Amino acid sequence: MPNDHDHPPAKKFKPGSVFFRLDKNKPGMLLPRKGNATTPIEVQRKQLPIYQAKPQLLNQLRQLHNAILIGETGSGKTTQIPQYLYEAGIGRQGLIAITQPRRVAAISLAGRVAEEKRTQLGKLVGYTVRFEDVTSSETKLKFMTDGMLLREAIGDPLLLRYTVVVLDEAHERTVHTDVLFGVVKTAQRRRRELNKIPLKVIVMSATMDVDLFSEYFNKSPVLYLEGRQHPIQIYYTKHPQSDYLQAALVTIFQIHQEAPPSHDILVFMTGQEEIEALARTCRDIAKHVPDGPMVVIPLYASLPPAQQLRCFQPAPKGCRKVILSTNIAETSVTISGIKFVIDTGMVKAKRFNPDSGLEVLAVQRVSKAQAWQRAGRAGREESGSCYRLYTENEFDSLIPMTVPEIQRCNLASVMLQLMALGVPDVMNFDFMSKPSPEAVRSGVDHLELLGAVERKEGQVFLTTLGKKMASFPLEPRYAKTILLSPDYSCSDEILSIVSLLSVDTVLYNPPAKREEVLAARKKFSSSEGDHITLLNIYRAFKKVGGNKEWCRENFVNSRNMGLVKDVQAQLRDICLKLNMKLGSCGTETGNVRRCIAHGMFVNAAELQPDGSYLALDTHQPVSIHPSSVLFQGKPAYVVFNELLHTSRCYMRDLCLVDADWLLEAAPEYFGRKLHPSKS
Ligand SMILES: Nc1ncnc2c1ncn2[C@@H]1O[C@H](COP(=O)(O)OP(=O)(O)OP(=O)(O)O)[C@@H](O)[C@H]1O
């Protein structure tokens, strides 16, 4: 059913806020549309709602050290504010950084702004994301992921290269963004104290808790940009849907039947497997319906970057583009041609219970802020529609804002990063939303168990091992496993395994071909577990030189395997910088498992007399995921890579280990935890 409130609900305005009320009826004011030298992209820039407020906005931004800028999706915040600042000479003594929670947004925005400025990407406008730096000495406007700015802060805590930091999509509240908030705030204060060039911090979003942000950033004024360029019509279902995938499929083909082929569709779903499965179904059905051709493009984080950017290419003429995406396309991006958004209302996210210490990935409902962001991907170049596959009542019951990731993840990684940043008292870091003391303590305990930190006189210090662990852009337990690998002469194998695990799924399992998949996997399957099975597949893949035909026959995702090679090369470089001696154990994979047990022992589980498993760290009941090669067996001890919560708590990616190895790895810890007969 169509709905009349096509904007996020009215916000509570703070006293002292500044309003720029934009006139919806005169978007392209003052613009000669024809007959002069103005090029279309310049016309487009001037038609954006934000353009009307440019002089007043600049007036404010020139004076303020901190500003919170809130404006509707598509109003022009991200692409225009950096250019306005630069053109007005604000922050010219250094660089203007614009951070994004996701790499795909950073890359595509840099491309767009370079185009608007008529410059080659990497010159005046550039970007830096993990494993890729497209900037030069000429770069002044630098789009980057928040994680990259954090990494830079390790070498330069005052961020002296930058005069302005624009923290975009602040509502996303990823762990990196939240840590970055504290880092820029400290840098700003320290620079003032040291009489350095001031750092201007601008926080932007369409959907954020302005009071919280303003309070945190020294009571900074809130600048409101009201009004949007193109309307978005919102539709809800009449009844709750029990199967959102089926509902998405039906909606896609209804639109396909009714709308002109140039109107593209963006569907928000939860993860790679679901997306790949729906993509195949859509392609199959599209062949058999008379409504014209359809190109279906999956979009998720573990796709190689070049594949991700495919979504921005226009579909061939007369062909409809359907993009099936996780929340990676939820904020910031403009995908040309998208007229319809289909929102399943679901997202896969981390959940953490500090009491039990369990971090699980689970499919859950989005927040209202996310739902508005998703809707905002339509209506960017012209009016659009968003089909919410849930009822209006269900929408009303969503939580307003996403719970910050910092409050729902294991904090070990964050604590390690803060210590590497030289933060003196990590336990009391100035977080915007403080994680619970139990969660902070549990993060530090985790690092202590791994030997990354030690406590002296109530203070926590990074050990030499911890410093080395922080050099890897990986979770601490992976970093530790790599660092231990020379002791077991199996660095080649461990680097392969960690890279394979970092890249998500390198295998695909079409449900319709279950038997064939099982037969193909059998050749590589190892009774030692999933890590060794993956290693066998990777070795076979390398032996055939990545042959595409071989990949098809063995249900191996050749694109992702290519990415594994890249990641492995990067990790190897870090190892070499740390002077590690890298070698291989050949077929002696016992050593590999032993090394995994020593690095990942925190995620160990023990078989119980009744045939069930308990996680040793938390004593939570856990089960072996059916996708594991160990599913049929009942090994006494395993370490697992992650927990996935669906109907129960499943361990994914398991490695068979000996109780003795766990005891060797952490004698005191396991002395308390292991089954009495084993300890
Ligand atoms: N790559 C692109 N191709 C075509 N048009 C684009 C592109 N990027 C931006 N635009 C245009 O510029 C407008 C403003 O985009 P911008 O990202 O600056 O908005 P925003 O206010 O930051 O939105 P959001 O809050 O959704 O990030 C878009 O609505 C679109 O019309």
Automatic annotation (TrEMBL):
Q: Which CDD domains match?
A: DEXHc_DHX33, SF2_C_RHA
Q: What does the UniProt entry say about where the protein is found? A: Inflammasome; Nucleus, Nucleolus
Q: Where is the Helicase ATP-binding domain?
A: 58-226
PROSITE patterns with a match to the protein in the record: HELICASE_ATP_BIND_1 (PS51192), HELICASE_CTER (PS51194)
Name the source's superkingdom.
Eukaryota
SUPFAM superfamilies (UniProt xref): P-loop containing nucleoside triphosphate hydrolases
> What is its biological role?
Implicated in nucleolar organization, ribosome biogenesis, protein synthesis and cytoplasmic dsRNA sensing. Stimulates RNA polymerase I transcription of the 47S precursor rRNA. Associates with ribosomal DNA (rDNA) loci where it is involved in POLR1A recruitment. In the cytoplasm, promotes elongation-competent 80S ribosome assembly at the late stage of mRNA translation initiation. Senses cytosolic dsRNA mediating NLRP3 inflammasome formation in macrophages and type I interferon production in myeloid dendritic cells. Required for NLRP3 activation induced by viral dsRNA and bacterial RNA.
Family, per entry: Belongs to the DEAD box helicase family. DEAH subfamily.
Identify this protein by name.
ATP-dependent RNA helicase DHX33
Q: From what organism does this protein derive?
A: Eleginops maclovinus (Patagonian blennie)
Q: What is the lineage of its organism?
A: Eukaryota, Metazoa, Chordata, Craniata, Vertebrata
